[in-house]
Amino acid sequence: MIEIRGLSQIYQGAHGPVEALRGIDLHIQPGEVFGIIGKSGAGKSSLVRTINLLNRPTQGAVIVNGRDLTQLGDADLRAARRDIGMVFQHFNLLSSRTVFDNAALPLELAGLSKDAIRQRIEPLLELVGLTALAKRYPAQISGGQKQRVGIARALASHPKVLLSDEATSALDPETTRSILALLRKVNREMGLTVVLITHQMQVIKDVADRVAVIDGGRIVEMGAVLEVFTRPQQAITKSLIDEIVPQELPASVLTRVQALAAQLGGASGQLLRLSYAGESAYQPILSHLIRELGLDLSILHGQIDEIQGQTFGSLAVFASGASAQIHRAIGYLRSQGVQVEVVKTGDVPTTQGMGDV
Ligand SMILES: Nc1ncnc2c1ncn2[C@@H]1O[C@H](COP(=O)(O)OP(=O)(O)OP(=O)(O)O)[C@@H](O)[C@H]1O
Ligand SMILES: [Mg+2]
């Protein structure tokens, strides 16, 4: 659907050239919600704006529906852009136009008749829940409602792709959820491919199927959202996920581990951090460890969450028993699809070292 090859973008800044995108390759499938996340200045807007050629890349190809947009002349490009709707952070509505007329603007520009415009826009306003507000002006509606107008306008030309650049960044959390739900609905019911730019992992978690992490103009990590959440590879990805799934254990847990270790006397104990996604469920696995392998387990910390109906969770447990038992337990957990991280606790509670076994 969207294929980006060898894309680079160099701006001529006041203090010399700025390399905003460096060799981006990306393949976005039809009908998916593809999230692109990164910190401020990472190159997100530069990237999304090349998908409809609002930015002409310095190098590389942008292939949408089989055509390389960088090779098209003005008229073909205008036609190709009708297949690509865009939603902006600050809505970009015209204050002198009503809700209806803002949504209808692309169709007016395309020269559609008044009747044809009404036939298109009325169902769209219905879809975004604004039928009752059609005659209001932007100053008379809320931020969330403005974004709904922005979405209706983006959908007016019946695009196949919807680009969203921080569409929810100016909205409160509840309104954000309702706008994301609307984007998801549009994706599902109209089969639209959605490319969604954000700096918030929560947005990715709520709506995206796949995610690419962009940093310094490069894609540094990419995968199914559940996969990236449960097995983040890069430090930048971990720090972005940290707001939802804390990547470090709280100091209080480590203090408790010290107390538990002190009680053990000669026996051995190990702090394990378990994480899993999808099929595995902790409860029977933990009972197995206790019953069959004879381990003592103290559950110290944990959380369970859901991404698109798939459960994922992480749990910190202190396992006490002979080291051979603990070793067998780790093998068993891994065979059940649970990721196991042995947390080194030698120097707790001041610093926390984590390492794989
Ligand atoms: N027109 C421009 N001229 C010069 N430099 C630019 C221009 N647009 C963006 N940049 C620079 O390119 C880099 C990437 O900018 P971009 O707007 O793509 O980042 P972003 O990830 O969207 O950031 P934010 O989250 O703050 O919106 C930044 O260093 C930015 O300062
Ligand atoms: Mg931006």
The CATH superfamily of the largest domain turns out to be P-loop containing nucleotide triphosphate hydrolases
Number of domains: 2
Low-confidence sequence ranges? 347-357
Strand tally: 15
Ligand set: adenosine-5'-triphosphate, magnesium ion
Measured by DSSP, the beta-strand proportion falls in 25-35%
- Could you tell me how far the N terminus lies from the C terminus, measured between alpha carbons in angstroms? 41 Å
Output the CATH class name of the largest domain. Alpha Beta
Helical residues, percent: 25-40%
Give helix and strand order, one letter per element, not per position. Answer: EEEHEEHEHHHEHEHEEHHHEHEEHEE
Oligomer: single chain
Assign an overall shape: elongated
Largest sheet: 6 strands, mixed
Strand order of the largest sheet: 6-7-8-3-9-10
Number of helices: 12
CATH architecture descriptor name of the largest domain: 3-Layer(aba) Sandwich
Structural class: alpha/beta
Rounded Rg: 25 Å
- CATH fold annotation of the largest domain: Rossmann fold
Mean pLDDT across the residues is: 90
